[in-house]
Amino acid sequence: MPSITSQYLARYRRIGAGEGADDPLPVTGAQRRFALVRSLDTAGRPDLVPMFFAFPHGTVDPARLAAAANRLAALHPVLRARSAVVRGAPVLLPERPDVPMAVVTPAPGEDTAAALRRTLAGWSPQGPSMRMFLARDEAPGGEEVLAIVLDHASCDGQSLARIVGEIEAAYAEGPDAEGPSPGETAAELAAYREAVLLQLEAEDRASSPAAMAYWGERLRAVREQAPLPSPGHPVAGAPPSGAAERRVPVRETGVSFPDLLDACRAAAGALYGPGHQVPLGYPWGGRPPGAAQVIGCFLNTVVFPATTSEGPAGNSTAFDWWEDLDRADAPFDAVVHAARAAGSGWTGRLDGLLTVDDTQRRPPLTLGGVTGRETHVDGRPVRGPFAVSVTHGPTLHLRMVWDRAVVDDDRAERAFAALADAVATTPAGAVG
Question: Per the confidence metrics, is the pTM higher than 0.70?
Answer without folding.
Answer: yes
